[in-house]
Amino acid sequence: MNITQVFNQKKPVLSFEIFPPKKASALESIDETLAELCRLKPDFISVTFGAGGSTVDNKTIELGRKIKNDYSIEPLIHLTCLNYNKEEILEILRKLHKEELNNILALRGDESPDIKPKAEFKYASELVTFIKNHGDFSVSGACYPEKHLEAKDAVTDIHNLKMKVDAGAGHLISQLFFDNQVFYNFYEKTRIAGINVPISAGIMPVTNKKQVERMVSLCGASLPLKFKRILDRYENNPEALFDAGMAYAINQIVELIAAGVDGIHIYTMNKPIIARRICEGIKTLI
After folding, report:
1. Which three-class secondary structure state does DSSP give residue 77?
2. Residue 286 contacts by C-beta under 8 Å, 6 or more apart in sequence?
3. What secondary structure letter does DSSP report for 262?
4. Is a pLDDT exceeding 80 seen at residue 141?
5. What is the pLDDT of residue 138?
């Protein structure tokens, strides 16, 4: 199914994100994780994509195949372009088409000190255009409520996002955020800019302090005072921090649903307990 069509059928749409195991041999062990996640009946599951190399690519595709064929849930395959040339991307698209994996999250990807960019794709919008020109794929894109770290300013970032949507991205998933007002302000700006596609709010429940500090350094998300208090109070008590972090995430999601958000996208970190706790907390709301 075309994921963008799901948003015409229900609201909010619930989705999870998982990542392939680092070792190909570990694909078998992820079945238990998938089984638990799929029992929660998300509308789709996104599968992340590595920085480069056919091994990562094949694991991503294999995991997508499992989700679709073994669990009858639509996968959204991440595809990065910075470290690939057009022929390599075309070959990946051929593999995806062969496996009937027709939903793609088009991303630029992060620079890696170990891999020299191919320079044929500079922006995700260029990848969106390329995908739309080479097959009947449904394309989603990423967005940044607090702007992309490399964007000059918020206005430029929204302009770049509009280019991505105009190129054919029919659905957006936001980077994580911890302050709902930040998302509301961003959402309003997208509508003013003429970006009218569904936007899923990306939520990452915090289970340890180092994790959130690392993620914030990578994506630039701000930490509201009430969230900092949780981290400071429970940083040395893992069980309490887990419970407090889950409660914070559930409260975020409840408020977002009440505000009429298009979708909720949970960064599960391959931990079914996270998805299960959240789904239990919002089971009557979706």
Report:
1. strand
2. 12, 14, 257, 264
3. S
4. yes
5. 97
Closest CA to 105 of 133, 55, 157, 142: 142
Instruction: Please give, one letter per residue, the 3-state secondary structure of 33-57.
Output: HHHHHHHCCCCEEEECCCCCCHHHH
Task: Please give the pLDDT value at position 219.
Answer: 80
What's the longest Cα–Cα distance across the chain?
52
Structure-token pair, residue 183: 């998302």
List the one residue out of 143, 126, 45, 48 whose CA is nearest residue 84.
Answer: 126
Strands (E) located in 124-170: 138-143
DSSP letter for 222, please. Answer: -
List active site positions: 17
Return d(Cα 145, Cα 204) in angstroms, integer: 14
Amino acid identity at 71 = Y
Res. 31: pLDDT tops 60: yes
Q: Which element (helix H / strand E) includes 263? A: strand 263-267
Cα angle value 262/266/268 (rounded, 5°) = 165
Q: Per-residue pLDDT averaged across 147-167, rounded?
A: 93
Q: What is the mean pLDDT of residues 172-185?
A: 97
Evaluate if residue 216 carries a pLDDT over 90. no
Helix (H, G, I), strand (E, B) or coil at 61: helix
The DSSP secondary-structure symbol of 140 reads E
